Amino acid sequence: MNEESTFGKILIIDDEKDNTEIIKDILEDVNYTTVLARSAIEAKAIVAANSFDLILLDVWMPGQDGISLLSEWYSEGFSTPIVMMSGHAEPSDIVKAMKLGAIDFLKKPLHDFLPILRNIMTRSLPEKSTQQVSGIDYSLKLKEARNIFESQYLLHHLEVNDNNIAIVAEIAGLERTTLYRKLKDLGIDKK
After folding, report:
1. Do 61 and 84 touch, CB atoms closer than 8 A?
2. Which whole-number Å values give the CA distances from 79 to 17, 49, 98, in the listed order?
3. Residue 37 CA from chain centroid, whole number
4. Are 100 and 72 in contact (CB under 8 A)?
5. Rounded to whole angstroms, how far apart are CA atoms 142 and 82?
6. How far apart are CA 16 and CA 61, in angstroms?
7. 154 pLDDT exceeds 60?
8. Are 190 and 181 in contact (CB under 8 A)?
9. Per-residue confidence at 1, pLDDT binned at 50, 70, 90?
10. Is the peptide bond before 126 cis (omega within 30 degrees of 0)?
11. In whole angstroms, what is the distance from residue 150 CA to residue 183 CA?
12. Domains defined for the chain, CATH in brackets
């Protein structure tokens, strides 16, 4: 299939063969190009030679787990959106993955995940190519700069959406509880 005629290219990293084959079939049925990796080592080799629009990454895998791979990639400046998946993740895993940069966390077995992925991919593609953050003080520590950006980002979306948390959570790609926690951590009053 010609990649130009697909909705996008997705890498699925999961050691559970049956699970990945089902996800791959569903995605390819609706015109996504998919590539499978069974481990972090295999995924690193694939990512080194290919670019993707989205990565689905399982938390629990033999060898290097998904959370440490996510951390490694984002500490290296990796910019491809990553959605974590797990059948038995603890709330602390979800929080840790989101703090490390995952844009969503899906519970396995995956049900009705196509609208979520399509929303993530259509939202993230234009941002990568056309928008840049300006006015950054590069002397700040990363966490301080990120907090300033997140505050401005969330305040903007709260303002233009009449403080509607559900809409802002959707725009930001966060669960509402995660958004509430983030607003509290940033000291933003939700009115």
Report:
1. no
2. 27, 15, 14
3. 17
4. no
5. 20
6. 9
7. yes
8. no
9. very low
10. no
11. 9
12. 3-130 (3.40.50.2300), 142-186 (1.10.10)
DSSP-assigned letter for residue 120: H
Distance CA 16, CA 31 (A): 23
Residue type, 16: E
The strand pair at 82-86 and 33-37 is best described as: unpaired
Burial code (b: 16+ CB inside 10 Å, e: under 16) for 96-115 equals bbbebbbbbbbebebeebee
Q: Are 75 and 67 in contact (CB under 8 A)?
A: no
SS3 30: coil
- Cβ burial, residue 83 (10 Å; 0-12/13-18/19+): buried
- Using one digit for the tens of pLDDT, what is the confidence trace for 11-58? 999 998 888 888 899 999 888 999 999 999 999 999 999 999 999 999
Q: Which letter does DSSP use for residue 187 in this model?
A: T
Reported as a single tens digit per residue, the pLDDT across 121-153 is: 776 443 443 445 556 667 778 888 788 888 888
Task: Using alpha carbons, list the distances in angstroms from residue 2 to 5, 7, 36, 64, 190.
Answer: 6, 11, 18, 33, 46
Average pLDDT over residues 66-83: 90
Structure token pair of residue 67: 């959370």
Three-state SS at 110? coil
- Predicted TM-score (pTM) of this structure: 0.61
Tokens of 105: 């966390």
